[in-house]
Amino acid sequence: MDSSSEAHRRIATIAAHLRPSSSQMENGCSLSGANCRAKGGAPGFKVAILGAAGGIGQPLALLMKMNPLVSVLHLYDIVNTPGITADVSHMDTGAVVRGFVGQPQLEDALTGMDLVIIPAGVPRKPGMTRDDLFNINAGIVKNLCEGIAKCCPKATVNIISNPVNSTVPIAAEVFKRAGTYDPKRLLGVTMLDVVRANTFVAEVLGLDPREVDVPVVGGHAGVTILPLLSQVKPSCNFTKEEIEYITNRIQNGGTEVVEAKAGAGSATLSMAYAAVKFADACLRGLRGDAGVVECAFVDSQVTELPFFASKVRLGRNGVEEIHQLGPLNEYERAGLEKAKKELSGSIEKGVAFVRK
Ligand SMILES: NC(=O)C1=CN([C@@H]2O[C@H](COP(=O)(O)OP(=O)(O)OC[C@H]3O[C@@H](n4cnc5c(N)ncnc54)[C@H](O)[C@@H]3O)[C@@H](O)[C@H]2O)C=CC1
Ligand SMILES: O=C([O-])CC(=O)C(=O)O
């Protein structure tokens, strides 16, 4: 028996006799530390998902474990992460997975992370607006961002928890208070609006959605979601009726899913897909890839509002450049005014929550 077969035999014997303790499972390794060679030393980025046991968190964990840019994946939630970690950690992809459960383990979950993705918080039920989630989710996001400010102040942060139009300003205020705010590193995830827009436009035009690129600006709720159909690539023309239909469908895409799920939550699978698409863009930017451009809700001077979603170029420092809105038609200019009015209140509400 050669030495590597002997090593495998020894490990198999140990594994058969060891019943892993919960702390060993949290290390993403079912052997004791001395016997486990998976130390997470491979090159790549360290990513944490906060809210990893949820409807979005679980498929997001699965997809991030498949991302070759990720070397270490930390899964944090207030419940159920040991099981999800054990499950995902068996995938034969590169990232080492570690689970953390409950507030006492938040700091360990965050320490050393390059990218933190936050889908923690309650989802909508039929009849609710995203703003109806504010009372619960504002406190959750504030608490998690306090942890980030303390343990990984230089991490890039992707906020998914709704209402995004308020939770991003909450995060910014927490970081300002802690003296760690870097506007380039804080991004509200509006990617699902773009994913939907590409899909719905492709349906109407009879195109492959992978070939369609629709800029969606503003924010992430109702009329604040503003697709710029005059700037769709490949360049195309719509009838007035098509513009009304597509715009309404994009603005109400979240509600369409909430109603179809009939009380069982909101978009989770398409959101996990969108979150991974966006996180991958952030990681490619951090790696130094050129020309990575996506829409996101960020600290912005594109309008008079302090936060606004538009196309941004992602780089080694996070948001390297914020694109202007470009020429808008009359329909879009009217939409922009409506969007700004609602956004302004949502941003102020978030800021006031932390300053109060
Ligand atoms: N930005 C976007 O485009 C979208 C945002 N969302 C939002 O994402 C959020 C999560 O949605 P789902 O995953 O469907 O909800 P969910 O209820 O299935 O999962 C939320 C998870 O957060 C966890 N959680 C609660 N408090 C926490 C805390 N203090 N620390 C860590 N984890 C905590 C829960 O235990 C649960 O596992 C909701 O606010 C929803 O509105 C949903 C879809 C799209
Ligand atoms: O609609 C919701 O509550 C969830 C969400 O943000 C979306 O699906 O766009």
From TrEMBL:
<dbReference type="GO" id="GO:0006097">
    <property type="term" value="P:glyoxylate cycle"/>
</dbReference>
<dbReference type="GO" id="GO:0080093">
    <property type="term" value="P:regulation of photorespiration"/>
</dbReference>
<dbReference type="InterPro" id="IPR015955">
    <property type="entry name" value="Lactate_DH/Glyco_Ohase_4_C"/>
</dbReference>
<dbReference type="Pfam" id="PF00056">
    <property type="entry name" value="Ldh_1_N"/>
</dbReference>
<dbReference type="GO" id="GO:0031998">
    <property type="term" value="P:regulation of fatty acid beta-oxidation"/>
</dbReference>
<dbReference type="GO" id="GO:0005777">
    <property type="term" value="C:peroxisome"/>
</dbReference>
<feature type="domain" description="Lactate/malate dehydrogenase N-terminal">
    <location>
        <begin position="46"/>
        <end position="188"/>
    </location>
</feature>
<feature type="binding site">
    <location>
        <position position="162"/>
    </location>
    <ligand>
        <name>substrate</name>
    </ligand>
</feature>
<dbReference type="GO" id="GO:0030060">
    <property type="term" value="F:L-malate dehydrogenase (NAD+) activity"/>
</dbReference>
<feature type="binding site">
    <location>
        <position position="77"/>
    </location>
    <ligand>
        <name>NAD(+)</name>
    </ligand>
</feature>
<dbReference type="InterPro" id="IPR010097">
    <property type="entry name" value="Malate_DH_type1"/>
</dbReference>
<feature type="binding site">
    <location>
        <position position="196"/>
    </location>
    <ligand>
        <name>substrate</name>
    </ligand>
</feature>
<dbReference type="GO" id="GO:0009507">
    <property type="term" value="C:chloroplast"/>
</dbReference>
<feature type="binding site">
    <location>
        <begin position="160"/>
        <end position="162"/>
    </location>
    <ligand>
        <name>NAD(+)</name>
    </ligand>
</feature>
<dbReference type="GO" id="GO:0006108">
    <property type="term" value="P:malate metabolic process"/>
</dbReference>
<feature type="binding site">
    <location>
        <position position="124"/>
    </location>
    <ligand>
        <name>substrate</name>
    </ligand>
</feature>
<keyword id="KW-0520">NAD</keyword>
<feature type="binding site">
    <location>
        <position position="137"/>
    </location>
    <ligand>
        <name>NAD(+)</name>
    </ligand>
</feature>
<keyword id="KW-0576">Peroxisome</keyword>
<feature type="binding site">
    <location>
        <begin position="51"/>
        <end position="57"/>
    </location>
    <ligand>
        <name>NAD(+)</name>
    </ligand>
</feature>
<comment type="similarity">
    <text>Belongs to the LDH/MDH superfamily. MDH type 1 family.</text>
</comment>
<keyword id="KW-0560">Oxidoreductase</keyword>
<dbReference type="GO" id="GO:0006099">
    <property type="term" value="P:tricarboxylic acid cycle"/>
</dbReference>
<protein>
    <recommendedName>
        <fullName>Malate dehydrogenase</fullName>
        <ecNumber>1.1.1.37</ecNumber>
    </recommendedName>
</protein>
<keyword id="KW-0329">Glyoxylate bypass</keyword>
<dbReference type="InterPro" id="IPR036291">
    <property type="entry name" value="NAD(P)-bd_dom_sf"/>
</dbReference>
<dbReference type="Pfam" id="PF02866">
    <property type="entry name" value="Ldh_1_C"/>
</dbReference>
<feature type="domain" description="Lactate/malate dehydrogenase C-terminal">
    <location>
        <begin position="190"/>
        <end position="354"/>
    </location>
</feature>
<dbReference type="InterPro" id="IPR001557">
    <property type="entry name" value="L-lactate/malate_DH"/>
</dbReference>
<feature type="binding site">
    <location>
        <position position="271"/>
    </location>
    <ligand>
        <name>NAD(+)</name>
    </ligand>
</feature>
<keyword id="KW-0816">Tricarboxylic acid cycle</keyword>
<feature type="binding site">
    <location>
        <position position="130"/>
    </location>
    <ligand>
        <name>substrate</name>
    </ligand>
</feature>
<feature type="active site" description="Proton acceptor">
    <location>
        <position position="220"/>
    </location>
</feature>
<dbReference type="InterPro" id="IPR001252">
    <property type="entry name" value="Malate_DH_AS"/>
</dbReference>
<dbReference type="InterPro" id="IPR001236">
    <property type="entry name" value="Lactate/malate_DH_N"/>
</dbReference>
<dbReference type="InterPro" id="IPR022383">
    <property type="entry name" value="Lactate/malate_DH_C"/>
</dbReference>
<comment type="subunit">
    <text>Homodimer.</text>
</comment>
